[in-house]
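Why should sequence recovery work at all? Because a backbone constrains its sequence more than one might expect. Tight turns favour small or flexible residues, buried strands favour hydrophobic ones, and helices have their own preferences. The token representation captures these environments compactly. In the example below, the structure is given first.
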């Protein structure tokens, strides 16, 4: 049996949760910028901001991990100079263009490598989690960027349709 393939990831903190994204999906880490709110957008869409020559959505996935009415889900502003944006991009497939967005995170922790041997089934929600992974610093929730973008698309469709 072949050894599990290693995966390079970016570990980051999101409203007190340790999370990870495949390094291949992360284009750049940027400081938090001024964000323009978008009226009637779902809570997961913090707003938009000019980044790298494009107007990109700023996604706040932290609201997906806390129930409605939870103080940490209600917080709309980031409070620290260490708050960051992860500029991410999905791979284009099935005739779809690649999608670029920025994830608002509390802070970037480090880059590391994980393998399937240290992966476990993720919690059932949110649906964009692909695994719970483990490294020397402890467990982290591994996000699937394509499913994350699909989740946001569905949230926007629901908000527009209501």
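From this structural description, the recovered sequence reads:
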């Amino acid at each position: 049996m072949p050894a599990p393939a290693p995966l390079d990831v970016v570990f980051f903190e999101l409203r007190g949760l340790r999370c990870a994204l495949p390094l291949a999906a992360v284009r750049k880490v940027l400081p938090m910028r001024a964000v323009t709110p978008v009226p009637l957008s779902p809570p997961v869409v913090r707003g938009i901001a000019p980044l790298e020559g494009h107007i990109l959505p700023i996604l706040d996935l932290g609201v997906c991990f806390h129930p409605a009415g939870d103080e940490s889900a209600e917080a709309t502003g980031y409070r620290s100079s260490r708050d960051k944006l992860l500029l991410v991009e999905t791979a284009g497939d099935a005739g779809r263009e690649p999608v670029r967005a920025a994830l608002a995170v509390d802070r970037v922790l480090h880059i590391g490598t994980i393998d399937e041997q240290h992966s476990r089934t993720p919690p059932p929600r949110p649906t964009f989690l692909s695994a719970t992974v483990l490294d020397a610093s402890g467990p982290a929730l591994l996000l699937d960027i394509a499913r994350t973008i699909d989740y946001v698309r569905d949230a926007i469709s629901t908000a527009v349709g209501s």
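A few observations help interpret the result. The chain has one domain: 6-161.
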